[in-house]
């Protein structure tokens, strides 16, 4: 192989996350992330500074320090480095931003010190200590990954998307973020459904929906590069048209902004350290850890990279270190921003180096107030239209994650449904925080916090506490529900009694599935039966095929013995149709020497089953043996799913009803 060919092969093996696009695309994609991220990046310092009464000059410096630290924090997460054997940064396309969950606690800390710019040293001292403590406990949090199954991470991501949508809607109606009197307690403490905008304004509506349409049309009718920067082009197009329609717009903010300012450490004074405020910040970091874990799993799913415990620890260490840096430079706690996950999903561009470039842009904006002011001139309705698309994509990622959850186990329904309900409840009526004691108000500090903690607590309660911990998998001989932990503790005889029907009573299949214990999940147990079939010898596979009833064989009542193979497709067929099935079965046995086995569930009608059977008659014997084993594998999978459904009659009845309605 030539050197050039070898280099080409190695290049093709680079994971999409690690690929470096050409410089023009790198810069364009990076700026697109900044445009989608910018408003969310400056919201928190605007809220905190406004409520605490920070002076105008110090407010600008808060925003600049935040932008600079956002950029550095994003570089830490996207590029990463090592401290000895410990990784810092998960090396995924995740932008870092100031955590919304910290708004209420930070304001509380500020008022402890009397408010105003004079209160900031205590705030930043608490942020530094909280970040150090979180950095140290990050590996412990990573070891608790079993408490973050898809039902938790999917619920949290869905809640994040749902609670961010009112923020986008507030932008879309022209809401002015950061104005005095604005109720920041709504939603994620970033916007209310009404805001200061005008939902009846046809201009606001036209620009918001127009931006959405531009993004959708670019996605639909263009391929490649133009499609992937559809959000950025939508923002640019909407902004240009806005200022053509509004030529008398006020540009004084850009004109008055300085050209250069560098955030120096401890600009607001030497930090003050107190125990209670530092513990409040640590609590904020624990709340955002739930969001970070959910964001990691969502991003891993989008980019096709498995998330391991050490990845979680690396990401959380980056959060902790970024928070320490934030407190040092005059900013606040940092976490992964879900907004940009939606952008990765929409564009399909997965390179972490794009996020690194976006981090560089944020640092530039943090150094040049005039550049930041120029980006800040994106009109509210235009920004809102783009945000609607992106935030909805975050919710869809959560729904996609929930689609992998086994809802035949009704406890998963309880965890997901209740946590989403609580999150929306607090989002819609944030004043419920005042209905609980002060020591509990942190739980209800926002829709994301309330929903995330509810998902975590319910998952622990239903799956990790008591004798029935773990998902319900089957029923015992006495009819009681058997859970995963109990299955892992079964002896060989108990396991065979419970699951022999899945594999047609084959002792070798049971033995091999039993040998794969312990099963970390219900899905792993189902996969064990599939693996047992794959590991079988040709002689064992032939014996298994001959144990299955022939599709054309009838019982004493004239019904197909192999009825479970066909379900609806063979239900209620007449004598003529049954005779045709029997003819097919006889011809099949004569040709191949084993019974006709077919998982006909995917066929809705009898004639489809018949056509599929005669088509298989054209196969060679070797090919047909493999085809028959595939059908056996499908039947085994259906049987296992039925056992799980029977162990969860409430939800299986519910989902069964919906499935029935869907086929009519």
Question: How would you characterize this protein structure?
Answer:
The protein has 28 helices and six strands. The protein has helices at 3-12, 23-52, 56-79, 103-112, 120-142, 150-172, 202-221, 225-228, 230-245, 252-256, 275-303, 309-329, 339-347, 352-367, 369-375, 380-402, 410-428, 447-463, 484-488, 492-499, 507-514, 522-534, 538-547, 563-566, 575-592, 606-616, 621-647, 649-663, and strands at 81-83, 86-88, 96-98, 334-336, 472-475, 481-483. Helix 6 (150-172) packs parallel to helix 17 (410-428), helix 17 (410-428) packs antiparallel against helix 18 (447-463) and helix 25 runs parallel beside helix 26 (606-616). 49% of the residues are buried. The strands form three sheets. The protein has a two-stranded antiparallel sheet with strand order 1-2. A two-stranded antiparallel sheet has the order 3-4. Strands 5-6 form a two-stranded antiparallel sheet. The protein is elongated. The longest helix is centred in the first third of the chain and has 30 residues, at 23-52. Helix content is 64%, strand content 3%. By secondary structure, the protein is mainly α.
Major β-sheet, in short?
Answer: 2 strands, antiparallel
What would the principal axes of the Cα set say about the shape?
Answer: elongated
**Count the helices. How many?**
28
Measured as a percent range, the helix fraction is 55-70%
Low-confidence stretches: 1-12, 176-195, 648-664
Mean pLDDT: 77
What is the strand and helix layout of this fold?
Elements: H1 3-12, H2 23-52, H3 56-79, E1 81-83, E2 86-88, E3 96-98, H4 103-112, H5 120-142, H6 150-172, H7 202-221, H8 225-228, H9 230-245, H10 252-256, H11 275-303, H12 309-329, E4 334-336, H13 339-347, H14 352-367, H15 369-375, H16 380-402, H17 410-428, H18 447-463, E5 472-475, E6 481-483, H19 484-488, H20 492-499, H21 507-514, H22 522-534, H23 538-547, H24 563-566, H25 575-592, H26 606-616, H27 621-647, H28 649-663
Antiparallel strand pairs: 1-2, 3-4, 5-6
Helix pairs in contact: 2-3, 2-4, 2-14, 3-12, 3-14, 5-11, 5-12, 6-11, 6-16, 6-17, 6-18, 7-9, 7-16, 11-12, 11-18, 13-16, 14-15, 17-18, 20-21, 21-22, 22-27, 25-26
